[in-house]
Write a structure and sequence with these properties.
The chain is α/β, with parallel strands linked by helices. 30% of the residues lie in helices and 25% in strands. The protein has a six-stranded mixed beta sheet with strand order 2-1-3-4-5-6, sandwiched between helices. GO terms for molecular function: precorrin-3B C17-methyltransferase activity.
């Protein structure tokens, strides 16, 4: 998926005072953005084009088009260009929308300038993933297949394995490669395959090349051997995930230079890890020299994550005078993103949460939470919804989908790790799954912001639900928090079936706090029907509290200041 961070070097070009003010706003937010100035605006724009990864021009679109048109070379290497009008009402992604990150940059510029991003890339406009935004190399008839996807024409998806792709629309259907068809195809493979005007090929990061070498090996020798080995095996270098070797080769210039040229990392392993890998061609000569009977084959199998059991050796070690190469294919791993949606309001949902929801092919969650995000999901996303009380079933369903090789998002309100779905899911997620945690604004933080600053000093979170935790355990924890004088946040404070626990907990706290200690109750924080109620430990009526509420009880220093709960930090300057 498209990186959410701005490009490394952004050139800002402006012709007027207003444009320079807008440029200053971006420069203040992004240390890597700088105003490019020359004798003329045209010279400044050409200089920014030549020296930056992206350009934001505060100029008329027509002027920018005329200046950069002679400079256009290749969308894969040209900088992205975003044009902003004089009043900063629109940020137009002019060039490099996908390949250069121009669309994402336009969104970021618009957010900083309170403008509207104008994105005309067809896939983005209708919510479909562009084939060149999936994070993998793609070649062949990319434009033709993309157009077929947009037009709703049948497109066959043919994949060597179950890679965790994002949601694709219903007209893209998985099929067997042998199925006769002269229509459009999207291939997902690391193999060299013939293409035509109706076939696009995505290259998954499935291959690892293990490399061994004598000290001082020339980079040309490593590169030539690697490319020859791949070509003879019918494998595409674009699917290389990394080069791998022994720790003692981490500074070998010939190997490192080859990795840099290919644009992949070099991963190295200790000799003890390499020696533990079962390989078909161990060598006692190599063991005597570096402490392991295999470098190239063992490193290829260990790959980037050390899971040799997920790999198949495709090419046994092949040597030249000073270099040795072996190649392994690593099986795809499912992807589980555990996503916190925040307290409810869309503007308190993080951009990363939105990115992960759009990255997923399957989204699992409570029905009422899924209703909050259906407008974010891409066409073709499969939604698995369930009702209250089915937390373990949701967790198991999400893990099962990810274990099958799919890209899954499991959603929860607030932060998914706070009394939410992360814990039950990760109890079942094993090494077959890559897990991504996406933090969210918790209910306690949303409530605290509405109440004032009640969490300004040490505080504790407690759930009063005794459905999974015995009440005597909860009571001991409430007592410990009361004795420790912590600000206390009660989750799951009261329901129709549990109507006495909150009163009991408040009674415990009241035994250790002044009776006028402030208590705040926030119901439906950031959602429709939001309510904020202030009371004290002596006056709060538990009957006003329900499962949509968060209760915040101050410590002995918490005060009301102008109707807001404030817990002092206790810095010495207060005295």
């Amino acid at each position: 998926m498209t990186d959410q961070n701005p490009p490394a070097r952004i050139g800002l070009v402006a012709a007027t005072a207003a444009g320079r003010r807008h440029a200053d706003t971006l420069a203040a937010a992004w240390p890597h953005a700088r105003l490019v100035e020359r004798d003329t605006v045209a010279e400044a724009l050409r200089a920014a084009w030549a020296g930056c990864d992206a350009v934001v021009a505060f100029l008329a679109t027509g002027a920018v088009v005329r200046i950069v048109a002679p400079l256009l070379h290749d969308k894969r290497t040209d900088p992205a260009v975003v044009v902003v009008d004089e009043a900063a009402r629109h940020a137009v992604a002019l060039l490099g929308g996908h390949a250069g990150g121009g669309n994402a940059l336009a969104e970021q510029v618009a957010a900083l300038l309170d403008a509207r991003a104008v994105i005309t890339t067809a896939t983005d406009a209708v919510g479909l993933p562009g084939l060149d935004t999936l994070g993998w190399p793609v070649h062949g008839a990319v434009a033709a297949v993309s157009r077929a996807i947009l037009d709703g024409e049948p497109v066959r998806l043919v994949a060597d394995a179950d890679w965790p792709l994002p949601a694709l629309p219903p007209n893209v259907r998985a099929s067997d490669e042998d199925t006769p068809d002269d229509g459009y195809r999207l291939l997902v493979t690391d193999r060299v395959v013939p293409t035509d005007g109706r076939t696009a090929v995505l290259r998954p990061p499935s291959l690892v090349a293990g490399v061994g070498a004598s000290r001082g090996v020339p980079a040309a020798e490593v590169a030539e051997l690697l490319h020859r080995v791949l070509a003879e095996a019918g494998l595409d270098p674009a699917s290389l995930r990394c080069l791998a070797s022994a720790d003692i080769k981490a500074d070998e210039a010939g190997i490192r230079s080859t990795a840099d040229t290919l644009g992949v990392p070099l991963v190295t392993w200790p000799a003890t890890r390499l020696a533990a890998v079962d390989v078909p061609h161990p060598s006692e000569v190599v063991r005597a020299a570096v402490g392991t009977p295999s470098v190239a084959e063992a490193a290829a199998l260990l790959g980037s994550d050390g899971r040799a059991g997920d790999a198949t050796l495709l090419v046994s070690k092949t040597a030249t005078a000073m270099a040795t190469v072996a190649v392994a294919r690593h099986a795809p791993r499912g992807r589980l993103a555990v996503v916190g949606l925040g307290p409810g309001a869309a503007d308190l949902r993080t951009p990363r949460a939105v990115t992960e929801l759009r990255r997923a092919a399957v989204v699992v969650g409570l029905d009422q939470y899924l209703d909050q995000v259906r407008d974010v999901l891409r066409p073709g996303t499969r939604v698995l919804a369930s009702g209250l009380g089915a937390e373990e079933a949701r967790a198991r369903a999400a893990v099962a989908e990810a274990a099958a090789g799919r890209a899954v998002a499991l959603i929860g309100s607030g932060d998914a790790g706070v009394y939410a779905m992360a814990s039950p899911a990760l109890e079942y997620a094993d090494e077959r799954i890559d897990v991504v945690g996406v933090p969210g604004v918790t209910a306690a933080l949303a409530a605290g912001a509405l109440l004032g600053a009640p969490l300004g000093h040490d505080h504790a979170y407690l759930s009063l639900s005794d459905l999974h935790t015995p009440w005597d355990v909860i009571e001991r924890r409430v007592t410990a928090v009361a004795e420790g004088d912590f600000v206390t946040i009660f989750y799951n404070p009261r329901s129709r079936a549990r109507d006495w626990q909150l009163g009991k907990a408040l009674g415990i706290l009241a035994g250790h706090r002044p009776p006028d200690t402030p208590v705040g109750v926030v119901r439906n924080a950031s959602r429709p029907g939001e309510q904020v109620h202030l009371a004290t430990v002596a006056t709060l009526d538990p009957a006003i509290v329900d499962m949509y509420s968060v209760v915040v009880v101050g410590n002995s220093d918490t005060r009301l200041v102008a109707g807001r709960m404030v817990t002092p930090r206790g810095y010495r300057w207060r005295s």
